[in-house]
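## retry 2 of 3
previous attempt timed out at serialization; input unchanged, resubmitting
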Amino acid sequence: MTDELKAQLRAAHTRVFDGLLDAIADLDEGGWATPTGCPGWDVHDQVAHVIGVERSMLGDPADQVELPDGLPHIRNDFGRAIEVAVEARRGRPGDQLVEEARETFARRLAAIDAMPAASLGEPLDGPAGMRMKASQMLRTRVFDMVSHEQDIRRALGRPGSTDGPHADIAVEQVLRAWAKMLPQRHGQHGVLEVVVPERDSVRIDLGEGQLHRGGTGPTPTATIHLDVPGLLALGGGRTDAPEPAAVTAGGDSAWAQAVLADAAIAP
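## retry succeeded, writing output
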């Protein structure tokens, strides 16, 4: 099973690396400067962020740059830490950023290849002081990168890359986080059914904090329909996320909208 898990995680990284490079192919200056739904970041900033975090995963020296004061999208120390790589690359030509991305992604795949499968159960350091089991860290990285790829694709009107192991991991990360976090945020119990195209529906029981798959579990209090980009935007707290009222398909819509108003899981 460990070898199978490593192969899945490697395949997911390959798909999202390829997807990111495809999403930014042949951009002109205006394309790089396109604002995205990730607060404070344009397309250039999104790619710079992914590069910076993946280089930190490689153990590269941290960028040395002072951040401007008063950046409104920085809410905590974690946000400040990951902004450094973005600030260090602001003003860098897009073709240079693409070249750095290609080189970084190739090194990351080589590093994953070199990991013994058994090490996936051991602790691994990540960005800004994160530390967790290696398999979960790699899933978290896939979720983050798929989210940013979809941010870029929505901003540029270049949809795609919503199927495959990378998308499966990203969707699962959001659903598991909702099962854990939403019960803590809402005293009113209920069951939220989430339907994502071409995937099994999932019911999140806010009383138990559990996921029920494939139409099993308690009767839904409300049902929502979200595609992969919409689910990631809502889970990521993006400004271009679908409005809760627009995704409620049945049941107690007021309850569902109250739950989805607190659905952001990003730090």
